[in-house]
Write the C-alpha cells for this entry.
Amino acid sequence: QVQLVESGGGLVQAGGSLRLSCVASGRTFSRYTMGWFRQAPGKEREFVASSGTSTSYADSVKGRFTISRDYIKNTVHLQMSSLKPEDTAIYYCAGRRTGGRYEYWGQGTQVTVSS
C-alpha cells in the first residue's frame, strides 16, 4: 500500500521559516516526480513545487521555497523561507509517474503564517 505522510507544518510568524517533509512508503519513488501543492481556505488547490527530471516552482514561491529529495530515505522536503500570511494553507505532498497525473497524495499538513 502506497502512503505519503507529510510532517513539519505549524504556526510561524511572517518572515519565518519551516521545513516540510514527506515520507513515501510502499513504493520506490525515485523514478517519480514528487510535488507539493497547497490549499488555502476557500481556494482551490494550487501547485507549489515539483522535483523530477527538473525542479519547478510556482511564481509565488520562487526564491523563497526550495524542494529537495533524499532518494535513499524516499523523502521529499520543502524548505520554506520568508513566509508570508498568504502562504497559509494545507500543504500536500503528491507523486506521479513521468508524463502522468498525480496519483498519490498525502493527507496534508497545516501551515499557518501570522502577520
Q: What stands out?
A: The chain has no helices and eleven strands.
